[in-house]
Fold:
Amino acid sequence: MVKVLLIGDASREHAIADAFVRSTHEPKLYAAMSRKNPGIARLCKRTGGDVAIGNIDDPNFVVRAALEFHVDFAFVGPEEPLFHGISDALEEAGVPCVGAKRNMALVEMSKAFMRRLMWKYKIPGRLRFKAFKSLEDAVAYVNEYAESVAIKPARQAGGKGVKVIADLQVYLSKEKREVKAEHVKTVYEKHMAVYDDIDDKVLIEERVEGPEYTLQAFTDGRTVLPLPAVQDNKNAYEMDIGPETGGMGSIAGPGWLLPFLTEEEYKQSVEIIQSVVEALWKETGVRYKGVISGQMMLTALWGPTIIEFYSRFGDPEACNVLPYMEADIVEISEAIIDERLNTIKVSFPDIATVVKAIAPKGYPDHRDLARGHPVFIDEEAIKKRGCKVYYGSLDERSDGTIVTAGSRIAEIVAAAPTIPEASEIAESCVQYVRLLDGWGVFHRSDIGSEVLLRKRIEQAQLIREIYRYRLSKGLIGRAIDWIPGRGKIEYEF
Amino acid sequence: MRSSWGGRLLAGVIGIYAFDKLWKMARFTYYGLLALQNRGQETAGIVTCHEDGLSEYKGRNTVDRVFLEEKLSSMRGWLAIGCVDAEVRHEESIQPVIVNKPVKLAFCMDGKALNWREVAAKEGVSAEGDVNVIAAILSKHIDKYGPLDGAVRLLEILKGGYCFVALTEKGEMIAARSPSGVKPLVIGSFGFDYGVVASESCAIDVIGADYKADVFPGEVYLFTPYSIEKARVQSDEVTYCSFEYVYLARPDSYINDISVYEVRMRIGEVLAEEHPVEGDVVIGVPETAIPFAMAYSNKTKIPIAMGFVRTGPHVRSAIKPTQFERLVGVQLKLNPIKNAIKGKRVILIDDSVVRGNTTKNTVTLMRNKLGVKEVHVRIGSPKIVSHCPFGVEVPPEDELIARHLTDEEVAAVVGADSFHWLSLNGLVKAIGLPRSMLCLGCFTSEYPSCLKI
Structure:
């Protein structure tokens, strides 16, 4: 019998756990978690497995759990353990691992590393950027040059600290410049203060706009096995208003594409990911074994463009694809470990899926308010409506009560022939996720709606026309500017 | 924008809510108000919210004259509301007004609540003027029921056509549109950084944000540091103001999710269908009637020409308080280009005629000094025959030319070869909404049921 150790404790990991439980190989599932996710814990118990609660960013803890449980391999859900070298540590201890080694996970951990890699290998979909070590240099750059930019912590910081400023009205530039400079300071003093594992501190990138989507893939470092494209929705509130979250819900399908994505664009996106996996191999001589996801955007510059990489599945995006994947995750995992992923085929039914996240009030920017509220999820009612629910940022206390841990409580997954239909079904289940102390929850009813979908299609069409025009003029990967007094400037990407 | 319209247009409101305290929103509000200047030119005001409470900055004049660069630059606060107002008000009633107790808040509104006196008496609130009273009642309601329910209750008892934006000292912003939907309100956002509500979408464009949607009649939005909540009051009858499309709103705005420009172009087409005439050139009176004239020309294939050039700053002369000031405004804005029209049969398109004297002035000038062969006047609005209970001030009924004279008589008075209005059905067709969803009171003397209290 196969024994598997799953690392992680969010909705994404619950969806991964669910995929393992459905495997025909009937693996015994174990989990290493920082908090006890009741959904994952229950699945482990059902297969005769067990859980270990501790700091999953600490490789010693995870290795100890793996050895204690005598697992055959490990599967890593979130990025932080990867950044802390969990895959390297497990392999040293003789436990094979689906999850990028530290050097590979740099593609997510260090946004500057990722950009430099794309530039070095001339991979399409790259953006101009500057990485800064010193605060003074970054502020000076912002004050002097930066117009429309994205300012990011140079290290992946739990998705926080990214600020995108379109600075197009000269009459509002002064205020925007102040915000940019202040934000650079915030990145240094707040978001990057807790990390000492990377030299660069802040990344300033050219701002691009367009519809975003995530392309998730398995890889063994040789073969990239892509999954259907998914679109997450990052604004906290309806109609794309509100602060950035980890994702309030996502849509996929029908089939492999999204309603606003062409087959050609999908293929180009896959090629970008393949090129990056190959570039990592050339750089390090190490094979990338695990999951890699491109957080992509359709831009006027390139068409498919890389905004960021994930060295893991997206959350909530994982929940759109894993429950419906027609392939065995045990077989995929073993093929990744043995570097024979080329022998695996995955297929998907021709359906659309919608995931809706439910968050406690206070998320994302006032998590202290969002924590510690008792939760009840009526799983039976959700199942009755044909949906799945994955437990998220929750903690099961020793007395059996389940409380919120500050982030998204749960994700509801629905499938139907079209996205709006799936959205309605998911919507009908939202009421079954409740807090028992009267504290409020919120979700986005508009995700997957006809109206929002139409907006995405219109936006994509607009961008598509520009990048096709640029293509026809030979301007993809190239830009020409006229700077009065200085002359013509040509950039080769 | 010039019009022969003779009343004040009430107000334009805006509210900006940043999700991050790094922002200083006073200047954004300023430019938003500049975009809404068409809705009122008498007073302008901004109130911001920051760590130490509320700051206000208001005055009597146009937006660019009220706010001084230095003071605007130093105004703190990541939350802000602002208002331009066409009503000449007492000092303490210049919008946004501030109420100190029980909940300290700033408040501004567009439109009219018709039963505010009765509601004030019932609630035991005494203050000078409708805006101050309604603000005081909102403050009481918030104290009693919380911001969302408080605003909902206010919408339930206040009858009329209005929108309001309020900002509490605690950093909550409330935006609401009356269940009748008479006055417009829209919502937009800028990335992950701020949300914005405004009377017209042009204000959202001008501050670089994206227009997202119409705020529905009866809807209340509550922005707090950790949520945007929504509630909706039952609307028995939605009656959107049709005059927004004819004259009030800017052509680059969306009102009730319908492009004002497209409606004005359709009005021009309908005018051409209803009242075709032989002519050599089409001329639109700047600026509201320009789309009417363009579409009239497109439809009839009669070329359009540039007829007038403006002297001096952009003023909406129609909302000047006296006839003398209106005429000065119109004449300064209407210096004709002689060579565009001399010796020609001119089709002159205007947006509305209230008293008739500005039109007469223009036609006389064209005939006497510029030597046009014929002048045919076409008006892109149905006859204005009645007052507006929602605050758009119409002159007394005995001054309204359309109420008393036939088209032929008007033609004779203003000195035109022919004179025609857009028909009421033509306007309804151009807007594209069912007649039952429109307030056409100023054209018909029939008012929506929200007036029956």
